Amino acid sequence: MQSRDGLKKRRAHRSLGFAGVLLVVVAASVAVSATGSAAVRTGVGNSLTIADVAPFTGVDAALGPTYLVACDAASNAIDKAGGVDGNQLNCKSVDTRGDPADAVPAVRQLYATTSNLTMVIGLTSDEAAAVVPLINGNKTVAFGMTGQAEFDHIHYPYFYRLVPADLAESYAMVAISHFMKHYKRVALAFGNDIGSQTFVGPAKSAVAKAHEKLVADETLDLKATTFRTEAAKIIAAHPDVILTEALGPAEAAFLSEVKQQNGGKAIPIIGTSATISPDWYKSVSAAVGASTLSQGFLADNLVVDTQGAAYKAFKQAIFAEKGKVGNTGSFSTYLTAPGAVHLYDGINLAALAMVASKSTQPSVYKGYLSKVASGKVVVHSFAQGVAQLKQGHTISYVGPGGPTKFNNYNESNGIFQVDSYTSTGKVKVVANIPNQWMAAVR
Amino acid sequence: MNVLVPSIAFGLISASVLAIASVGFTLQFAVTNVLNLAYSSVMIAAAFVAYAVNRHGVTIWVAALAAAATGAILSLFLNRVVYTPFQRRKASPIAIVIVALGMTLIIEYGTQAIAGPTNVSYSMSQGSTLAIGSFRLTVAQLAIICMSIVLMLGVHVLIRFTRLGKAMRATAANRDLARNSGIRTDRVVNATWIVSGALCGLAGAVFGMDAGTFGATSTDLFLVLILAAVFLGGPGEPYGAMLGAVVIGLGTEVSAAFIVSDYKDVIAFVVLLAMLAVRPNGLLGAKA
User: Fold this and answer.
1) What's the pTM?
2) Is the CA virtual torsion A191, A197, A201, A206 positive or negative?
3) Quick one: which of A26, A269, A437, B255 could link to B267 by a disulfide (CB 3.0–4.6 Å)?
4) What is the helix, strand, coil percentage profile of chain B, to 5?
5) Same domain for A105 and A141?
6) What's the pLDDT tens digit per position in B231-252?
7) Does B117 touch chain A (CB under 8 A)?
């Protein structure tokens, strides 16, 4: 009995040890993925790091990988063109989990472990308010994806945005509803995260200015799993259209409920530019059907070049990443996804500014970001830009996101367009939104 | 309000999904004495296995069996490799809870690492909508409710009328006494992990069917609802968990019809707190 007990104890110790090791090893791997891991690409010369600070886990987990595709596409194209004065670019993921409480320590760790950090990209509304002051304090140039209104009024010298302010997006959605589709009864269904809720106030005000009737306003808990009652309340209000943004699985679950409870008939939807994304399309089309989505869905987006030289270079760079990322649905959606287009442009602008300023120090090249976007010779890629700079010309980089002109708050917004999805998941440009439409609902 | 009746129907569906998960959870807790907070992560891992099977053209109703098997295997693994060694070392209950929390993260992020960050949907038809006035359910929702009722009856038969069920009850009541009475409690505990794990896996698949779309972290909040249903009914009380699931399921959906809907899950806890103030051991727990 004693020896059997001893054996049992040893087995228990061994199992306990195994469990402990398993716990530590996997927890360590989770921690590493949570705080960022360097990309494996290596190159000749010095290596400069671009950090993709965004959610890689949690409800917005699809955003970080989308930005990483843009980062890899731009940096690979730059490296192929010889790099930034011989320096190769690396992309590094920093997982904020979509939560400021996780984002701040992750960014602190980024600074503690990355000596060659030259730029930060990503920065969604989930974490931007918490980490932008930190990044700005460390004097790192950052291109953010947040449209939060507070950045329209607070000047962070190192923080740049090529994406529309949420305020303007709300106006664009209502302009589509009122002027283009002539809807009268509007319902709002936005997620309960900061990034989505920021659209609600301006949308309500724009709906009132357009003399439309707001018939329902539902807030969707992004962590909830079903939205049956929310859908029932919206259907009971008989809206002509639903203005919406709810990321993660929420949008798909909600819209599928709306369609099902409405007798299989979908209510027209107008989404924000965030709904032009491979992940959003994949989950929503799977839930409501690709043909339903192709018939009753529109989204606002900034005008994106889909034919010219800039688009050709962008498409080539993006498609070079195909197969390197997981199953994200229709890969071509990246070609119009704001996260891909504008971050690609941001990285190219910064790289050209580094070449023009002959420095990779953010405090030095920052001063050239506007200059390389407003020179005499128009260029559409990093390679073209470097060639012109070497000949002593001043350049104006015009990427797939169009010309860049930063205002006092380092924002550059272009003209809005209306996008839709085809039944195969490709993004189709339906129309441009005239400025007078925007002014009428502002 | 014209959404009251539909919200009652919705509450029944929510209760059905919650009941499968809650009964498995409370059965596990009653017999093994482990508050397995990794339960929801096992659920979602099993849901993804069902998704993988479903993607190969197998109907989700059959793929749900793969989820049940995954839940059973993963739960048994958790017990044998993680919880039992800690219990043998006389780890305190709170230490086991912390270990379970760690396992939640490991399984959840492990699932995300394998399945990717995007959300997925089962390939399934909801069928036609059956309506009695404004009380509407699709065929698929009705099937989920029926499945839940059958499973609850199955659990009832297992607990009341089988040798294993009696051994489970004896082990849950007093493990030492049960062992001294000749019951092989280790086997009973393993069987409980398998049965409750199968319920957990099945709950994962049903959760995915009901939600329409899900990702690796989708069950984070659902765990809270499971705990609410379990403690409302009385921890370790399978019938209490069924009752708790009905109250929480109906409570969340009906309240969403009257209040700002993103607070609907808070209602679950208001109900729980109010009930525990009156009956601290839950609806069917021993009287304090």
Assistant:
1) 0.76
2) negative
3) B255
4) 75, 5, 20
5) yes
6) 988 888 889 999 999 999 988 8
7) yes
